[in-house]
Write a structure and sequence with these properties.
Layout: H1 2-30, H2 33-62, H3 69-74, H4 81-86, H5 92-113, H6 119-143, H7 168-196, H8 201-232, H9 243-268, H10 272-294, H11 308-332, H12 347-377, H13 386-403, H14 417-423, H15 425-441, H16 449-471, H17 478-487, H18 490-515, E1 517-523, E2 528-531, E3 534-545, E4 550-560, E5 563-568, E6 571-575, E7 580-584, E8 586-590, E9 593-602, E10 608-615, H19 620-637, H20 648-655
Antiparallel strand pairs: 1-10, 2-3, 3-4, 4-5, 4-6, 6-7, 8-9, 9-10
């Protein structure tokens, strides 16, 4: 009965989405407030029903109802409760239900918290959201129904893919989807603006918070996915330029450009057409990522589906929304006024350069992802890997990072590049000192590595310089500096933290890839491995029975200069139901660096294959994105960016006494 209830709730959500997609548009055409308000009620009701459908699927997994095909294919009665819950979206059907649930949640938030929007604009935005929701409800019900029953229910399930039985599944996909789907709001605002034929600085003010929310979640989702791959796959890598990894990177790059472009539009009423186009392209890239993961056109550990029927359906959705939106843009963009002018050397000019570099970098990743697929369609087998991206993407991003400290310190409309360069002198000197120190103290690796670390220091120093200039640090009395710091807009603090996070991540990437130490060998009991000054002694192997797996555990005593530091216990798990195994790496954190140990196969004489890595400053790779997301949250908490915040003029008007 639970499965049928979940299925019917999904059907009702589809019906509500169809109403929401049509009636408000009629109301907007007739200027009927009652019909336009149907969008709000329908969006909230749609959220209620799709939420009920999702909860029903969770209950089926928790109760191990193997009469439902989705539960049978992806669960096991002995699986821990946390993995029963996360297993709901550890498969194609369940993950699509999570996708549309998040989509409905964003629509519901616009309905609930978008009271400051003009009624017509809100009606158009929610109608466009309903178009997207209707298409994906149909996709789920026609090709990917998670509530299908099995005629003769089995006693036990097939279990979830062992690689997915990890806490990372509880965090990574939901955050990634919150980012992917969150950009649908920016898309809906753009289409609504094109339909109404009106776009201004107020539009940018309304769309920025939603874009920022999506960007924050996508940043955290990508970082979490990278860390999950790092410790779970046993290879010690954190990024592989996998097509599905690229599918999440592309909307992040476009979304970052959109945030900066919307800032120019809000502050200077410029870049209107470009901001609308970026809003469309960012969500289009999210849809492209959905297609790549679920169409079967690529083979990846991330890919969910190989059914060509699903791929064709999603391709139709892709063509409908991307083609339709770009056609609407082509027809209406010429009627939009471009807005204010500015000099090339200005904050607007720096943000345009930012957009240019981000857009070209995104295009490079798109080409590297789709070109092998196009060649494969012509029966030419090929792959595009790290060498291609190192030659194309990396130089573009290096130029972007070099320009990052300059932008916030330039004035709007017309800036003084020489004055900004002088103010960044301290950051430049610090970068040069760090380059000299790294060059003198390190051995081996690329000669460009010290320069890259210096660039990271320059970015961090630039963010600190911007804050010190704004607060008058070292120029004004401390009490005055403190007062100015408290009065500084949170968006300024947020931008500085986000830019510093980029520099921190760059330093981590360079140190890990350049000076990573590796030891791969077959070890027996009492053998000692020597890695980067650490001694790892294998004390022995033991067996342990888990809830739905059998585990072989190795115990390593770690010491340095004769002093015992810790014990590391990597393991290898064998899941009998699935007939597969996973490697559970052991990590020892020392500051921002880590020792990493993973196990391979055991031999007949009692030895075992071992991979041991020392990864200097590797944690900076993920601390950087976390700091970036924190900066985004600070910006989001700025009263000027909060959805529904009253305009200063209105607030002042309410304070005036009645006559």
């Amino acid at each position: 009965m639970i499965a049928e209830s979940g299925h019917y709730a999904l059907v009702l959500a589809l019906g509500l989405a169809l109403i929401q997609s049509i009636v408000p548009l009629i109301g907007a055409r007739l200027r009927d407030a009652a019909l336009m308000n149907v969008a709000r009620s329908a969006a909230l009701a749609q959220l209620l029903f799709v939420g009920a459908s999702f909860i029903a699927l969770v209950m089926l997994h928790v109760n191990s109802d193997f009469s439902v095909a989705n539960v049978y294919e992806n669960s096991h009665s002995m699986k821990p409760l946390i993995y029963k819950i996360t297993g709901v979206w550890g498969n194609h059907e369940g993950s699509m239900l999570l996708w549309v649930s998040i989509l409905a949640s964003f629509g519901g938030m616009v309905a609930a918290f978008g009271n400051n929007l003009p009624l017509s604009l809100r009606a158009h935005v929610l109608a466009v959201q309903a178009w997207i929701a209707s298409a994906f409800y149909l996709f789920i019900l026609v090709t990917s129904n998670p509530f299908l029953r099995i005629a003769n229910p089995p006693i036990e399930g097939r279990d979830l893919n062992p690689v997915l039985q990890d806490i990372g599944l509880a965090v990574h996909p939901p955050m990634l989807y919150l980012g992917y789907v969150g950009f649908s709001i920016s898309f809906s605002f753009a289409i609504a603006a094109l339909m109404e034929g009106r776009i201004d600085a107020a539009w940018a003010r309304w769309v920025r918070p939603w874009t920022l929310v999506a960007w924050i979640f996508l940043t955290l989702g990508i970082a979490m996915g990278s860390y999950w791959a790092y410790y779970e796959l046993g290879w010690g890598g954190w990024w592989f330029w996998d097509p599905v990894e690229n599918a999440s990177l592309m909307p992040w790059l476009a979304g970052t450009a959109l945030l900066h472009s919307a800032l120019v539009m809000e502050k200077r009423n410029a870049l209107k057409v470009w901001t609308i186009l970026l809003s469309i392209l960012t969500f289009s890239l999210s849809l492209l990522g959905t297609f790549l993961v679920r169409s079967g056109v690529i083979t990846s550990v991330h890919a969910f589906a190989t059914d060509p029927t699903r791929g064709v359906f999603i391709l139709l959705i892709l063509c409908l929304f991307i083609g339709g939106s770009l056609s609407l843009f082509a027809g209406r963009a010429t009627s939009l006024k471009q807005g204010g002018l500015f000099a090339p050397i200005s904050r607007e000019g720096a943000l345009v350069l930012n957009n240019l570099l981000l857009s070209v970098a995104c295009a490079v990743v798109l080409f590297g992802t789709l070109y092998p697929l196009a060649m494969e369609a012509l029966d030419f087998k090929m792959s595009v890997g790290a060498p291609f991206y190192n030659l194309t993407f990396v130089p573009l991003f290096a130029l972007l990072l070099l320009a990052v400290p300059l932008g916030p310190m330039l004035a709007w409309k017309r800036g003084d590049l020489l004055g900004v360069t002088q103010r960044l002198l301290a950051a430049g000197v610090a970068a040069l000192v760090v380059i000299a120190i790294v060059w003198a103290w390190t051995r081996g690796g690329s000669a460009l590595a010290p320069l890259a670390i210096g660039l990271g220091v320059f970015v961090i120093g630039g963010a600190m310089t911007d804050l010190s200039e704004r607060t008058g640090l070292f120029r004004l009395p401390f009490a005055t500096t403190l007062h100015r710091a408290r009065g500084l807009p949170r968006s300024a603090w947020g931008a500085a933290f986000a830019h510093a996070g980029l520099g921190i991540a760059l330093i981590g990437i360079v140190c890990e890839t350049t000076w990573n130490s590796e030891y791969i060998a077959t070890m027996k009991q009492n053998d000692v491995a020597h890695v980067a000054g650490y001694d790892l002694k294998l004390d022995g192997l033991s067996q342990r029975q888990g809830p739905n797996f059998r585990e072989m555990i190795a115990e390593f005593n770690v010491s340095r200069d004769g002093e015992k530091i810790s014990v590391m216990t990597p393991s290898k798990r064998n899941f009998t139901t699935r007939g597969s195994s996973t490697t559970e790496a052991a990590l020892l954190t020392r500051g921002a660096s880590q020792l990493y140990v993973s196990l391979g196969d055991a031999t007949a004489d009692g030895a075992i294959a071992v991979r041991i890595y020392h990864k200097p400053l590797v944690l900076l790779i993920w601390w950087g994105p976390v700091l970036m997301a924190f900066g985004g949250m600070l910006s989001l908490s700025d009263r000027r960016l909060r959805v529904g915040a009253p305009k200063p003029a209105r607030a002042k008007q309410r304070l005036q006494p009645a006559e």
